[in-house]
Amino acid sequence: MYAPEIVAEAVVNGLMSGATYALVALGLTLVYGVLHIVNFAHGALLTCAMFAVLGLNLWLGIDPYWAILPLALIFFAFGYGLQRFIIGPSSHGEDRNTLLVTLGLSIVLENLMLAAFKSDTRSLGADTAFDVLELGPMLISRPRLIGFGVALATAALLWLLLSATDTGRAIRAVAKEKLGAQLVGIDPRHIFAVTFGIGCACLAIAACLLLPTFYVNPRVGNAFVLVAFTIVVLGGMGSIAGALVGGLFVGVVESLGGLLLGESLGQLGIFLIFILVLLVRPTGLFGARA
Predict the structure, then answer these.
(1) Which of 88, 131, 227, 281 has the CA that lies 20 to 30 A from 31?
(2) Pair 236, 76: CB distance under 8 Å
(3) Residues sharing a CB contact under 8 Å with residue 97, sequence separation 6 or more, in sequence order
(4) In this structure, are residues 261 and 28 in contact, taking their beta carbons and an 8 Å threshold?
(5) How many folded domains does the chain comprise?
(6) Cβ neighbours of residue 59 under 8 Å, at least 6 residues apart?
(7) How far apart are CA 55 and CA 52, in angstroms?
(8) In a domain? residue 241
(9) pLDDT band for position 290 (cuts 50, 70, 90)
């Protein structure tokens, strides 16, 4: 048996990792909730954001945390343009076409990164990954603690955007009834692009929080998207609150799984949960039946 303080430390670190996972899942569930499609390019876009963070740090000396705001704006514009001028027009209003377009976009982006950066694994190489805070008997990772705070603040801002602004009301209207929203003067194409842009902005923020303690290569985003899909299914497809709660829960499960089973098997519990949720409650914790 492990000492209680070791288990408590694993739970706390799992919560902090889970907040960043939730941020990745937020973009995925938001796009699904409004566009009603699964974005297969999500992982490749996260990888692009991580390489952007790495480039800003190596070439311009910009700290990843200072890069959060500019990269979020850049990736919002990038996501808006992708949806408005590539994904939307090429899908011709068919969901199955959108799935194929995002899958093709994922392949294109991944191969462009392979051509540009090869398959080498890179990291910031900074000592910040080893910064810890002593909270009584527990050692808490400082970068993960910062990531926890920023992820929760981003989720709160996203909730405020959706609930207290005209843009948020338009997003919710299009998600509920696209034709009705169009009849009252809302442009669904613009709202789709804004939603996709917000999802990409969430990925940019997540990349800034991940890179101080993680590495990047052209395929690294796929691993995070597998976890994000589990979170979205666990919390309920299209649910913002579900993505946040699911992310925190999955982070704790991964951390305790790594403690009990070893680091290489830490994610085994995540995918067992994925299967159980599909069997027992397919709508997720916060999902509604169609």
Answers:
(1) 281
(2) no
(3) 90, 91
(4) no
(5) 1
(6) none
(7) 5
(8) no
(9) very low
